[in-house]
Design goal:
This protein is an alpha/beta fold and about 300 residues long. The chain contains 10 helices and 10 strands. It binds S-adenosylmethionine.
């Protein structure tokens, strides 16, 4: 029922909902089953109001037009769930820190390549890639202490010791999440899982918030990447894609895992979220685990 002076609210028909669901799936792989349909409807109504439009079909036409590119990006941004935290899934981070990194450093040192590339795919507001950076810096100083490479140390000691090169690429489909990540400012609440020694070494207190120090920030490079596309960052030693695939259907998960396989260096690692698994999606990875932490290692193909 409409009130005098207020425009009547547009109705979202079943066929319009299907059109929009298909478009969203094609654009970013997100799948809205019956449990999440309500969330999708709510966000669509919001965007329609924001655009001051009165029909979902016209809104759909806008989204598929050249002029609607910005609105499409806004809609997708409104549909993402950006929940994240520092040191999320501690057992898995321990496995990465103590087992995966140690193996990678040894291998790289033997090959005298001294360079490591890690990709946080679906990095949200940055807590995941900054956690990775802190752990890599820690593990690398420890490795260099025990396995000197013969290079003269530089003073003051850089975060990443010579001759090592560490690239951490962090990507997301949400521009606002990427902006926050790049800014690297976190509240006391967001810092609750960061222990005192990490706070001291890698953050400056700025008013009520904590700012990521320049040296740590410089190890992470943020960029926009839609995981639905084919052009994804190559030659990674480790890919973190945690709590992203759970929003995709099985067909899209299979396609994504296949892409990750191709984006990894031989024998590279893929780390997925606590509630996610590669079971039934691929047979090209072996699962590894320590305590309760799990990861997947690419099976190297013998040529
Ligand atoms: C729940 S957060 C997970 C953040 C972090 N990986 C973690 O586990 O704490 C999911 C992130 O995936 C991003 N995302 C969803 N679909 C995406 C896509 N097609 N391409 C890239 N990022 C996507 C969202 O924007 C969101 O920031």
């Amino acid at each position: 029922m409409s009130t005098a002076g207020t425009a009547p609210q547009a109705q979202l028909s079943e066929s319009e909902m299907k059109l929009l669901q298909t478009l969203i799936y094609q654009e970013c792989g997100m799948h809205f089953d019956s449990r999440r349909a309500h969330f999708l409807q709510d966000r669509l109504y919001r965007r329609l109001r924001e655009c001051r439009m009165d029909s979902f079909y016209s809104y759909y036409r806008l989204l598929i037009s050249k002029e609607g590119k910005d609105e499409l990006a806004k809609l997708l941004e409104n549909l993402t769930v950006n929940e994240t935290s520092f040191f999320r899934n501690k057992a898995q981070m321990d496995l990465f820190h103590k087992h995966i990194l140690d193996g990678l450093f040894r291998r790289k040192q033997e090959q005298r390549t001294y360079s490591l590339r890690i990709w946080s795919a679906g990095c949200s507001t940055g807590q995941e890639p900054y956690t990775i950076a802190m752990l890599v810096a820690d593990a690398l100083s420890y490795h260099v202490l025990r396995n000197p490479s013969g290079y003269d140390p530089i003073l003051p000691r850089p975060l990443i010791p010579v001759p090592w090169k560490v690239e951490i690429l962090a990507s997301d489909i949400s521009y606002s999440a990427l902006r926050a990540a790049q800014e690297g400012l976190y509240s006391e609440h967001q810092m609750s899982t960061v222990d005192y020694s990490y706070r001291l070494r890698h953050f400056d207190k700025v008013g009520e918030r904590y700012a990521v120090k320049k040296a740590l920030r410089e190890t992470v490079h943020f960029d926009f990447h839609n995981l639905k596309t084919e052009y994804l960052p190559q030659r990674n030693d480790v890919i973190f894609c945690r709590n992203v695939m759970m929003y995709f259907d099985e067909a899209e998960q299979k396609r994504l895992v296949e892409k990750f396989y191709r984006c990894l260096n031989p024998g590279g690692y893929l780390l997925v979220g606590h509630a996610e698994s590669l079971l039934g999606l691929t047979d090209k990875f072996n699962m590894i685990y320590r305590e309760t932490g799990t990861a997947y290692q690419q099976i190297e193909v013998e040529l």
